[in-house]
Amino acid sequence: MSGTKGLNRQQMADRVAREFQDGWIVNLGVGIPTMCSNTDIGDRDITYHSENGVIGYGGVAAEGHEDLNLVNAGGQNVTLKPGAAVVHHADSFGVIRGGHIDATVMGAYQVSMTGDFANWKLKGQKGGGIGGAMDLAACARRVFIILEHVTRDGSARLVTACDLPVTARGVVTLVATNYGLFEPTRTGFLLREIAPGLTVDEIRATTGGMLTVTHGLREISISG
Amino acid sequence: MTQKTKLRSSFAEAVADIPDGSTIAFGGFAMPGTPFNLIKALMDQGAKRLTLVANTTGGAQQPRMPDIGMLVENGQVAKVICAFTAATRPTDKLPFTPYYESGEVEAELVPQGTLAERMRAAGAGIPAFYTPTAVGTELAEGRETRVINGREYLLEYALPLDYAFIRARTADTAGNLRFHRSQRNFGPVMATAARVTIAEIDEPIIAAGGIDPDDVHTAGIYVHRLVQVPPAPDGLWPTKRQERKR
Predict the structure, then answer these.
(1) Chain A closest CA to B1's CA: distance in Å?
(2) Alpha-carbon distance A192 to B234, whole Å?
(3) Interface subset of B 46-85, CB within 8 angstroms of A
């Protein structure tokens, strides 16, 4: 992305994808989170779940080989991996509420130091776009958020308390921004890794709450 | 069996008796499973003051195919019950938005899993249930919650339907259905919650017994009317989504 510092969109997705462990069932949200499936994480076997009941989808179908009755949550015509299964919507959300999703990755407008996040409604907006986000946020075993570190006008998106309507409270376990990798700590954010070209002072100045820095802070590896 | 045939020769015939004020659910998640042909027929039929249930109000993706937003634009809708009443990108305006903002059409915004489960409950004789979804959010304000085993849950009520419009790949004359890939989505759940389920079918409808009982996705007892989708251009079929520029 032009005009922003640190990691680009794919690099943010790559950093989150490297958290996925062998055998996990993962749900990827629309937008940058979808890009996690492009990351090379070796021979780790990840099963991707989509809200519409597709369990075990693969990459986007090649031009001319699309099945127009097979889409992921973003509406892309995807492929199925060997071992895939399809269930109906109530069962698909049974997968989610039943605690069978190891990690969900979503975009957000704001994340708070207490692990709340907001991603379905802007201030003053009538209605909103919830989709499956509230079910996933409340019930996935881990909630990973990817977002730009600051808004277009430079204000923090990692905040002490969300001033937008929240999607769920106290659920976020990991946050990747273009500036670094963070964990909400209740009193602030723990900086776990820093993006190349950023300084801790720059991050502190643009992050809500107290910023703590992990001992022996490392740069985010962008080679994969 | 001495049952009346479920086969209907046209979409117009299948929706002809739908009265004003009905609650109608529409299968579909993006294009797969969306009953384009039944939506179009309902626009021609003209029933009014409808309550519509679907994942989205439509119009977010191109090319635009028949969606419930078109029924709104056609002046047939009093209320929608959806998981999206706005686009996922707030800068995108949906065709539905001006009708909602002016108060002409009412909307109930429901998390997607809660929406599916409310219909599943209606079809399974469960009047209400507790879910952890939406606890602590604006959607839960002023509503009944209960702490069970140390965790807070929100009470949600079943959502019974007058009609369900769905789309499947294969049907036999008993109304048994098989779906193809993500065409399934809400279809089986809506079928159980509806008094009358109308299914548009991709393939020629086969004799009862033509689908092995073990392979049936939705049992024919839930399906009341079947219409085979004719080939394009007479019938409407999913098309490839146009990717947006970013």
Answers:
(1) 30
(2) 58
(3) 55, 61, 83-85
Residues of chain B contacting A127 with CB distance shorter than 8 Å? 85-86, 97, 100, 107, 109
Structural domain spans, chain A: 9-219
Distance from C-alpha of A34 to C-alpha of A73, rounded to nearest angstrom: 9
Closest CA to A101 of A155, A147, A46: A46
> Six-digit token pair at A116?
């709340």
The CA radius of gyration of chain B, in Å to the nearest whole number, is 18
- How far apart, in whole angstroms, are the C-alpha atoms of residue A191 and residue A189? 6
Question: What is the pTM for the complete model shown?
Answer: 0.96
A71 DSSP assignment: B
In 3D space, the residue among A100, A119, A114, A111 whose CA is nearest the CA of residue A30 turns out to be A119
Give the pLDDT confidence score for residue A176 in this predicted structure.
Answer: 98
> Which of A144-148, A202-206, B100-104, B241-245 has the weakest average pLDDT?
B241-245
Strand A110-112 vs strand A117-118: parallel, antiparallel, or unpaired?
Answer: antiparallel
Q: Which residues contact A20 (CB under 8 A, 6 or more apart)?
A: A26, A36, A41, A44, A46, A103
Residue given tokens 């634009």 in the structure block: B73
ipTM > 0.85? yes
CATH of domain B11-116+159-228: 3.40.1080.10
Residue A5 CB-density burial (10 A; 0-12 exposed, 13-18 middle, 19+ buried): middle
**pLDDT of B245 over the 90 cut:** no
Q: B222, B192 in Cβ contact below 8 A?
A: yes
- In the structure, what pLDDT confidence band is assigned to residue B244 with cuts at 50, 70 and 90? low
Domain segments of chain B as ranges: 11-116+159-228
- A184 pairs with which residues across the strands? A189
Give catalytic status of residue A19 as yes or no.
no
Domain A9-219 indexed as CATH 1.10.230.10: no
The DSSP-derived string for B92-116 is SPPTTHHHHHTTSSEEEE--HHHHH
